[in-house]
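hiii so my PI (J.) wants the whole complex modelled not just the main chain, which honestly fair. so below is everything: four entries, each one labled with what it is. i double checked the lines twice but i was tired so who knows lol
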Amino acid sequence: MDISDARNRIVATADELYNAKGIQSVGMDELRTAAGVSLKKLYQEFPSKKSIVMAVLERRHQSWAEGLDARVRRAPTPREQLLAIFDYLAEWFCQETFRGCGFINSFAELGAISPEVAEYARKHKESFQAYVASLAAGAGAPGYLAPQLAILAEGAQTTAAIAGSPNAATQARQAAEVLIDAALNTK
Amino acid sequence: MDISDARNRIVATADELYNAKGIQSVGMDELRTAAGVSLKKLYQEFPSKKSIVMAVLERRHQSWAEGLDARVRRAPTPREQLLAIFDYLAEWFCQETFRGCGFINSFAELGAISPEVAEYARKHKESFQAYVASLAAGAGAPGYLAPQLAILAEGAQTTAAIAGSPNAATQARQAAEVLIDAALNTK
DNA sequence: CGAAGAAGAGAACGGTCGTTCTCTTGTTGT
DNA sequence: ACAACAAGAGAACGACCGTTCTCTTCTTCG
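here's the output for the full assembly
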């Protein structure tokens, strides 16, 4: 087994477990069992639980950014690229494992007591805002459009998570259409 | 001291502490000290920490619903009533103690392991959606407007919490204006 | 005044968690 | 074959948390 193989499995397993049950509810022993490694190996790869949490956040960020960008690139026009954000959300919400945005959740759980987690969540959302801004700029939209669409996307995530239904994605998409067209027409 | 006086102080103190540090990070002893009651009194008023959490959620729900409705009633027209939602958010975001929506936070922290908390968060958001729907109906808007505005409000809350700035309220308000006018014109 | 009960303070208990230690097993290099 | 090291399994440790128990103090009522 490769050295980073165990590492990857640990982080992937932690990601699943933390997403399903919350971070604080998952102990190192449960993670150890689920990942199929020894405690020794676990602490050989990571010095502490906190470092595992940060690795999970990095993994989530990469997975989100790559998945979103892949979905966006399938859209032919700049306008449809902006809307593709919400198609990506719709697909995500329909997955059985969806339990809300992992960054919002980890921020809610640990943001108040862990500055690193709070900071990482902030950076992640900042990068999403910047991504939306770049798409909006590509569509020739005024600067205020991107934050509006980002807020819609955030709201769709929490609404879908708490309501337990993916409806919010299509509702947000329709709202986004209105906002995009309004922004492009008054330009 | 009245019987319910201690109860109220316990719940109010728990609300503050849970909001500031998260629920799981605040132990019964810290709550006891901050509220200035004995452990005996604490367990005389509430059988368990879980019941305190539920009482805090009820308190948050009432406070939110009353504060929002009071703000909305100050608005003269149905259209401005819908926008008043976002003025209420703006005022909230500017408070020093703002750390995001308490229901989103408690759902993220405990929703996966406490069905009661998850259910209460769902009910709270449902009631907010119904409230927005009643305002939208008063403005003569089509049915799809209310969910759109509710999603904007949710997104503003998480965005403001994580970014640590109240900007999202005004951005969401401007988006709401566009959505409202579009919905009212195509009717 | 004295006995009885309420109430506060905090010790104690059982359980869990993050982390480390120990002991056993297996493997490798000569 | 044997010494030496790597690694797995899980016991152990210290800290903390929710909850209960005990002891002391204060009030109150006959």
